[in-house]
Amino acid sequence: MALTAALGNEHMNALNKCKVLMVGAGGIGCELLKNLVLTGFTDIELIDLDTIDVSNLNRQFLFRKEHVGKSKAEVAKESALKFNPDAKIKAYHDSIFSSEFGLDFFKGFTVILNALDNRAARNHVNRMCLAADIPLVESGTAGYLGQVNPIKKGMTECYECQPKPSAQKSFPGCTIRNTPSEPIHCVVWAKHLFNQLFGEEDPDEDVSPDTEDPELTADAGKAALDAEAKKDSIGGIERKSTRAWAVETGYNAEKIFNKLFRDDIKYLLSMETLWKERRPPQCLDFHDLPGKDTQSLSTRSTDVWSVQECADHFSRCMTELKQDLAGRGDSGMLVWDKDDNHAMDFVTSVANIRAHIFGIPLKSGFEIKSMAGNIIPAIATTNAIIAGAIVMETLKILVGKMDKCKQVYLNRVPNDRKRLLVPCALDPPKPKCYVCSSKPECSVRLNSSKVTLKTLKDKILKGYLNMIAPDVEIDDGKGTILISSEEGETEDNEDKFLSDFGVGNNTRLKCDDFLQNYSLIVSVVYVEKLEGEGEFEVVGDISECHPAEDEASASTNGISSSAKQTAEEDDDLVVIEDLEITDTNQALEIEDISESRKRPAEDVQPPVMAKRRAAEGGDSEDIIEIS
Fold first, then answer.
1. 161 shares its domain with 196
2. Which of 187, 338, 474, 534 has a CA positioned 20 to 30 A from the CA of residue 227?
3. Is 424 a catalytic residue?
4. DSSP one-letter string for 108-177
């Protein structure tokens, strides 16, 4: 009765008839599900693959300590039913990418509500909603900032209409290994060392000096290389991996310390060219360290440890992590976790020791945890406000008033008009969007003599363009199939280059994803070599992509294209997520952070400045109206 009085008969009738799909049961998701059942939504389905972690409990209020390790979707359902036992809620502990959730599944809903934490899933739901022609309400938060975006095919921009800036910073491997100049370089190196000693070994995370540094001239590192060759040749000794060497020493803290911070630094110093314009690093010896020698170590996260304290923590962590590793068995390994005190103290101590060696300011454990864990604080009240705004916009959609919907931005501080919540007019679809336009098309700049089918499939189509099961054929009238989503059909060709199949400049590739009901034409533009280290560069608007005349003509069979490889897959790049938050009193657009295995805040996305859009109605938009 009270709901009818508050919302009116029109909205109540719509609520009784609608069926809602909610994707994500994290920070925003918990608030949203509670709002839905209390507002009168009675038919809700919920999807989330994640399980409940201890770190979720301070803000995801549908979960309790006894729920740790259980399905978020299932527990959220049970908790929400206590608010409204009459609601019908179906929970799926599954991935939204599952083939079970195909086009017919999406068509069964009145509206889709996103409460996701990663770009790939957002892109997928966006495409499924476009294919099913179902309204979508997108959302995100980052600290005190938040955003809600209603999306409708043919009426508004889709989630992918605006290019999303990379949420990652990348550093050349040689910078991390040879010439760090910022605290974050040392933190990345320390995390790599953790994996080399205790985790899954990755050749791209080598922590030893890099003799292939492009700064080195032909003979710049000759002394170092000669010394290395001489050392390796004595007695036919074969170079060992960091893990093998550590095991051989019994994970002896002193030996490992001196190897990493004395011997390897001496080796770096022999690369004299690197230090002509830089402050050279200073070697450290385990028994001759600066700083106070304390019997009781500081454990407060806000303290900055001395070098001696760092060495003491390093020794302690080596012992504790060795024991943790032994408990995993012969084939076991540890996974770095910011909430694991041993792992966190190890990275803090190692990062600060390396920082001291290179003359970089030391940081507190809290600061290093923020860098290493890619943390943007998750604020429960921000999630609550955004979840409320989602419901407000959804109510407009249910009564057929999509034209009354607004993009809603939550600011950190009031803007010039004293508003924290800023409603803005919805933007129309971008005519050349490679997802929602009538004829989706994009260009890829690459060198088809150097790019393989595997790169096309995994890095370009799946990695960058977020396809799930792509099928690709050359648009040449012959129907030449390059990639098939059917298992076993084209795997044998994956190591062949695109040029082997006649793919070159101006070749058009027809790409289809039957799971997303999505088709895209990819036009290849040949370039001999891209600037930087990338393999390919995707350009949404084909008119922006022109090969140099000499490059196009020089290619055989029109071979073409180079591209900017996604940073996380670049062999020479170490990737971290960008933590910078733009503080502004204008409307902000929240973009995503690239996925990680465990996110510190499920709905965190770093903000970027958005163009200021004038809200319809001018000064009348002081509140967000339901009708």
1. no
2. 187
3. no
4. T-SEEEE--S-HHHHHHHHHHHHHHT--EEEEEEETTEEEEEEE-TTTS--TTSSPPPPSEEEEEHHHHH
